[in-house]
Amino acid sequence: MEPLLEDTRPSVFLPQHVTLLLTALGVYLMSTWIYNLYFHPLAGFPGSKIAAASGLYEFYYDVVKKGQYLYKIEEMHRQYGPIVRINPYEIVINDPSYYNEVYVTSNTRRTSLWPAYRSGVGFDDCHLLTEDHHLHRRRRKPLEPFFSRIGIIRMEETIISEAKSLNNRLEGLKGSSSVICLDHVFTAFAADVIAEVCYGSPSKMMTKDEFGADCAIHPDTAAGSMMTQRVEQAQRESAETRVREKPTLFRHIMTSDMPASEQSVERLTNEAMAIFGGATGTTPHALALISYYILSNQEIRERLGEELAPLMSDYPDNPPKSTDLEKLPYLQAIIKEGLRLSYGVMRRLPRRSPDVALQYKQWTIPKGTPVGMGAYSLHTNSDVYPEPFDFIPERWLGAYDPRMNESWVPFSRGSRKCLGSKYEPIHPLYFAHGLVWCQSTNKKWQSSNG
């Protein structure tokens, strides 16, 4: 019996299989695009059809073009108006008069986070990235006393002490021809202050070479192990019922009525990382920007020095209090202008109203729809802020357009606004007055502009 001949003809199974898969994928994508464009609840909203069809348009500008979608959204507003659909699921509004309707207090209505916006951050169980409204409130409540007006007064000596240490460190570098990066300097400053608030002892970043530049470049990686150790220490102290003269944020949490599941080392480490990241992310940028404009503009420096002079007769032995500094209009104008141009978080911060639809003019936004507004758009609106990219503190003096305050949102607003909204303006206050006073007493500093 002769052996059967082997069939050497090429198999057609794989190509047919691939064809079926590609056909199914094509049908799925096409039906999804058609649904998004014509049948989705947001189908009638203004905006680019390409952006509305799928998330690929946003992906291209944010990933391939490296974060340029923010500016593409600005173009959409110029083309389509104040309300635009920027992807299949999300609406963005550029109208300061509507800001308080999106970012509301907890007493107004429930507000939830859009999960897609926190994707990849890694701190999902911290208060900042908690999706559910009520769980967010429970997690945030124990933190608020330390970032309230009373909390500022309690920690004022700590902030003053760290500001003095920073000024002394910079004084020590005078004449050394050292080049320092202000972002690194102020990241170290903010890290030491927030470590004092959270744990009762500084991170000592300001004593490190180059002000702990690694922390400035990779703050989360640099601080991770330290945060875990500090949380574990706070837990031990709480278990031992040790009495401390100076209360700290995490000792307070350990003695609060939060359930044990909310006090795990892992969750509280994530909470600490979120707070640390917030403090060392936005504060240093604002401080560096304000310092640059003070150092590079003699008119600003001299005018601020004249305003500070009555409070500085016994500086640095007896520095002025924040309550005194807050009464200085030009200093306050500098701080507000610096925070305007440093933006806080530039990108939109989408919020969802899970219970009720939102109404913007003739547009009814379905409940549960992510709606965002961005500080960059509001802070650079030339109708509200003429010459919006110029540092002009004088725009905040005297009688000015009330829309300026309405559009000024470096900390966002509502129940999810920045936890440190009362702390962050204090940091520039103390550094600015020390910096200017060094200048006015002939302790000369030079900016890169000479």
Automatic annotation (TrEMBL):
<dbReference type="InterPro" id="IPR002403">
    <property type="entry name" value="Cyt_P450_E_grp-IV"/>
</dbReference>
<dbReference type="GO" id="GO:0020037">
    <property type="term" value="F:heme binding"/>
</dbReference>
<keyword id="KW-0349">Heme</keyword>
<dbReference type="InterPro" id="IPR036396">
    <property type="entry name" value="Cyt_P450_sf"/>
</dbReference>
<keyword id="KW-0408">Iron</keyword>
<keyword id="KW-0560">Oxidoreductase</keyword>
<dbReference type="GO" id="GO:0016705">
    <property type="term" value="F:oxidoreductase activity, acting on paired donors, with incorporation or reduction of molecular oxygen"/>
</dbReference>
<keyword id="KW-0503">Monooxygenase</keyword>
<dbReference type="InterPro" id="IPR017972">
    <property type="entry name" value="Cyt_P450_CS"/>
</dbReference>
<comment type="similarity">
    <text>Belongs to the cytochrome P450 family.</text>
</comment>
<dbReference type="GO" id="GO:0004497">
    <property type="term" value="F:monooxygenase activity"/>
</dbReference>
<protein>
    <recommendedName>
        <fullName>Cytochrome P450</fullName>
    </recommendedName>
</protein>
<dbReference type="InterPro" id="IPR050121">
    <property type="entry name" value="Cytochrome_P450_monoxygenase"/>
</dbReference>
<feature type="transmembrane region" description="Helical">
    <location>
        <begin position="20"/>
        <end position="39"/>
    </location>
</feature>
<keyword id="KW-0479">Metal-binding</keyword>
<keyword id="KW-0812">Transmembrane</keyword>
<dbReference type="InterPro" id="IPR001128">
    <property type="entry name" value="Cyt_P450"/>
</dbReference>
<dbReference type="GO" id="GO:0005506">
    <property type="term" value="F:iron ion binding"/>
</dbReference>
<dbReference type="Pfam" id="PF00067">
    <property type="entry name" value="p450"/>
</dbReference>
<keyword id="KW-0472">Membrane</keyword>
<feature type="binding site" description="axial binding residue">
    <location>
        <position position="418"/>
    </location>
    <ligand>
        <name>heme</name>
    </ligand>
</feature>
<keyword id="KW-1133">Transmembrane helix</keyword>
